[in-house]
Amino acid sequence: MKDLTIDKTAKTLEVSCSPGKLDFNGCSITNDPKVFFTPVKSWVKDYIQKPEKLTEINLKFDYIDTASVKYIFDILNDLKVLNSRKGYSAVVNWYFDYDDPEILELGEIIQSKIGIPFNFNEY
Question: Per the structure, how many domains does the chain have?
Answer without folding.
Answer: 1
